[in-house]
Amino acid sequence: DRGTTLTVSSFGFSRGMPPIADLVFDMRFLDNPHWVEGLREQTGKDAAVAEHIRLDPAFAEAWERIRDLVLFLLPRYQAQGKAYVNIAFGCTGGRHRSVYLAELLAEALKQAGYAPTVVHRNLGARAADGVEGNH
How far apart are alpha carbons 96 and 91 in whole angstroms? Predict the structure, then answer.
């Protein structure tokens, strides 16, 4: 552990922004698994959803840039005395894309020597077309 308390969280924009977040990444540019038969009731913790997200043409480059930016910023936050950093990933409902990216970043942070806490605010929310909008 490098001394900074890290939280990596996921949330659904349709259910409101998190009140405390230092960095917020909007993942709504990735294809939404909510609209894929068989994936709606699953979450970003499920392999089929993860695979769907990884297949989006924008995923690989976006993920690398986000990971590299976070790893670049964290030592600088620490050098400035920031003891707590909350990194939040949002998508429409907070069950698929944001969950997958939060889990992925938490693993990358662990590999870099950090000990992040992961919080999925809307993971238990029921999938609903009303919050996902029209497709």
Answer: 8
